[in-house]
Amino acid sequence: MAGRTVVSFLVLVIAALLVPTLTANPLVDSRPFLSNSETSLTLLYQNNFNLSDSASHVSAILLDPLPQSQAASACAALSETLISESTIRAHRADFLRQFSYLAYSGRSSSVQSYHINGGVVVTTGNFNNLAFKPNIARFSRLPVLCTQSTQVAFANATASASNQISVASQGNTFVGFRNKKSFRFQGIPYADTPKRWQYSALYSPRGQTIQATSYGPQCAQGGGGSEDCLSLNIQTPYIPKSGSRKNLKPVLFWIHGGGFTGGTGADPLSDGGDLASREDIVVVTINYRLSTLGFLAIPGTSIKGNYGIQDQITALEWTIKNIAQFGGDPKKITISGESAGAGSVRTLLGSPKAIGKFQGAIAMSSLGGGVTLGLSGDYGTTYSTYYSIPQSYAVAGQNIFQAAGCTQNTLDEQISCLETVPALDLIRLSSVARYVVQDGTYVNTAQLIVSKKNASTAHIPVIFGVARDDGASFSTYPKTPVTTEVEGIQAALGISASYAQSIIDSGLFPYYDTGNVTFDSFNVSQRVATDKTFRCIDQATVYAGSKSGAFQSAYYYQMERSYGGYDPNNLGGPPITPGYPNGNPNLPYFRLHGSDMPWLFGTLSTLRDANDLYSIQLTAGYFAEYVRSRQPNPKQSYLRARGYTTTLNAIERTGPWLPVKGAEGPIKLFDYPSYSSSFIDVPQCAFLNYSVSYYLEGGR
Length: 700
Ligand SMILES: *[C@@H]1O[C@H](CO)[C@@H](O)[C@H](O)[C@H]1NC(C)=O
Ligand SMILES: *[C@@H]1O[C@H](CO)[C@@H](O)[C@H](O)[C@H]1NC(C)=O
Ligand SMILES: *[C@@H]1O[C@H](CO)[C@@H](O)[C@H](O)[C@H]1NC(C)=O
Ligand SMILES: *[C@@H]1O[C@H](CO)[C@@H](O)[C@H](O)[C@H]1NC(C)=O
Ligand SMILES: *[C@@H]1O[C@H](CO)[C@@H](O)[C@H](O)[C@H]1NC(C)=O
Ligand SMILES: *[C@@H]1O[C@H](CO)[C@@H](O)[C@H](O)[C@H]1NC(C)=O
What we know:
Layout: H1 9-18, E1 34-35, E2 41-44, E3 59-66, H2 68-77, H3 85-90, H4 92-104, E4 113-116, E5 119-123, E6 130-134, E7 142-148, E8 164-169, E9 172-178, E10 183-189, E11 209-211, E12 231-236, E13 238-239, E14 249-255, H5 273-279, E15 282-286, H6 291-295, H7 307-322, E16 328-338, H8 340-349, E17 360-364, E18 387-388, H9 389-395, H10 398-404, H11 411-419, H12 423-427, E19 437-438, E20 461-467, H13 485-493, H14 497-505, H15 517-548, E21 553-559, H16 597-601, H17 610-629, H18 636-642, H19 645-654, E22 667-670, E23 675-677, H20 682-687
Parallel strand pairs: 1-8, 9-11, 14-15, 14-16, 16-17, 17-20, 18-19, 20-21, 21-22
Antiparallel strand pairs: 2-3, 2-13, 3-7, 4-5, 5-6, 8-9, 9-10, 10-12, 12-15, 22-23
The protein binds 2-acetamido-2-deoxy-beta-D-glucopyranose (NAG) (6 copies).
């Protein structure tokens, strides 16, 4: 890590002019790479989220104004050259849109000249044409357009001598790199190596050069990983000039899912490179401690649990302190996550240590339950109704000591024993801790309080929503065919015949007959599962929170189109039909848990039809606008400036996504285009003892 001297490109430029042999200067690395000490860097790429289309687009790097005499050397310091007229002409539509967005966002004039190879390019006021003027403006300081030659467009891009960039922040230097679409800093340690069952503390070394060019290890989990895992990743379209706070972009702070026992911020499905580039925001993805290492809580000791949650807050603190140097606005942070990541968002919305550290929150498929369901407890309950420390210990405490063979006489001895168990052995035991607990510090209520407006809940606008069939991932498709619906529901939900019968008798979950009893009763069951574990709690949360004023406002969605996801039953996607080699999304299929992530991040590589792409553009556009302005409807002027016509058309056709106002919602059904609806399955939720107004009635 040590020993690399970072030089600014301008120093290099001057050095190149004055010093004949660069390498003779011991302070100058023989392999120069760029820093932001003399200019901001903006990566221009007209990103349509069509991942197979990247070969037909080019990117460019925009630098701050310089006289022409210095422009070529400035690009050379990036291992690039001034962009040529022919490149711009060959990608004229892309450049026009990039220029129009620069003007829209106040970064240029509408009639603006840029230094390019051998002259300047000038925009016309209405961005329908470009003028090329060779050999003029030699002495004007104009923004500079360099080529961008790194061609790898995806999360698997790697750093090379020619694409690295260093950024200084808080006394350290971070070496990242760029791919075709954004600048990337991977594996930044945000905390010191955590001590087992102690809270994490912000990374403390100073004067370090941190090689942020490859992901840090994932936190210890079934598939491997490390106890020393507290790192984060940044994707950004923009790096301000060192020390400048100009043009900072809002930040999406992503907390991965995985049941509090798995997952990583390096998941390619949640890679922020495309979202950052298309929507001009900064994306941060984090790791946090998992399983027994992140969540063990033992009554009467200093081991109070919630280490994973506290790590998330440490990562937020790192982000607030450092993100401006990476182009992010520390006062515009939206926390977001899916599944256990959404459970984390829900927890942070009520955490006294987290409130104030973020301004927006997106909870995708947050789990809940917690009602007397005639069911033997609900898997989702503990994600939103928090155990006390003794309750957590009763479920995941003594049995962990047993499984580890730590059965000494005193608790102190048992804990000392458990502390010596290697991390991967510990998390692979038959019993693990994975519950958020009421520890009195990070979490001090049994549930997020949405029934009234008080200081226990972050008073901000929020987004909650579900995938239409989230519960299909949490129901069991019968191993052997069944012959009756009762039998099918029993098997899928693991409930008694009489309770299965009462579901049928309610008439609320009609049987949809395709002639396949096993399949059709599974379909009924997964609707019950979706309601009881996802839909009812999430609708109840936004209804109560907006009615009581606990939330400043609340938006709710349901994914009607999605791809892949968590599929333990091997249900697969829609059938293949002629013209649809990747499946025909117009035919029935389950919208599974986790299948929504590409609709936020634009990471779907297998498009089934054009509407997949357009719905991703539209949906990611809602989320990104919310990150920017705390409401999800992009301005028409923004969409026009960027040339995002499919999104513009959809919004013109079906209207804005409105906040929840009452028992009718409204909510938005995400597809292409999206449609407005009222809350879904309201009577079903009442039947399941989880009415839409559950939280207003004080819960149960
Ligand atoms: C990188 O990812 C892309 C998109 O998933 C894939 O097509 C490509 O083969 C990958 N490249 C490498 C070197 O793994
Ligand atoms: C709802 O709660 C009532 C009262 O506790 C109970 O009798 C009923 O079985 C519950 N309904 C369901 C669907 O679990
Ligand atoms: C908020 O209201 C809840 C429920 O009435 C109460 O327990 C809590 O103490 C209140 N919190 C604050 C910070 O006022
Ligand atoms: C019922 O549907 C399932 C899932 O598609 C399939 O595996 C099974 O073969 C079908 N059974 C019959 C009798 O068609
Ligand atoms: C499940 O049933 C609903 C009707 O309740 C139907 O619209 C949907 O297409 C079915 N899902 C599948 C995957 O067949
Ligand atoms: C995505 O890009 C590919 C390659 O350029 C193109 O063939 C395809 O039509 C595009 N898909 C859509 C929906 O625009």
